[in-house]
């Protein structure tokens, strides 16, 4: 079970985005991963979740980013300014993540919820 400090988000959630822009215009990207700092300890079976919500009708402008895992407020805090400046999914995709850190997985969130594909990270 995650502590409240292990969940943070900026922007809209799926329901708010769908209500504001229409469900047909919303794309939700998901990624599940195992943080390096948990890989050898008692939490080695736990994963973290990344979610990116975009507006398809507006060049996939990012409407919301959600993260459940360690250092949540620090990770999400860094994306707040980028979203205020109109960050799109394309900009997020071409940004280089800091390695090794769990935040680098935000830059590789590429499976959409509507695709039904598995969004679990399988390797480093």
Please tell me what the overall shape is.
globular
CATH superfamily: FAD/NAD-linked reductase, C-terminal dimerisation domain
Give the mean pLDDT.
Answer: 88
Which radius of gyration do the C-alpha atoms yield? 14 Å
Task: Give the structure's gist in a few sentences.
This protein is an alpha+beta fold and 124 residues long.
What would your notes on this structure say?
The protein has 124 residues and is of the alpha+beta class. It has a single domain, classed as Enolase-like, domain 1. Helix content is 21%, strand content 25%. The protein is built from three helices and five strands. It has a five-stranded antiparallel β-sheet with strand order 1-4-3-2-5. β3 and β4 form a beta hairpin. The longest helix has 13 residues, at 72-84. It is globular, with a radius of gyration of 14 Å. The mean pLDDT is 88.
Features:
single chain; Enolase-like, domain 1; 124 residues; alpha+beta; five-stranded antiparallel sheet
Task: Give a topology summary.
Blueprint: E1 7-11, H1 14-21, E2 26-33, E3 48-55, E4 61-68, H2 72-84, H3 89-93, E5 111-112
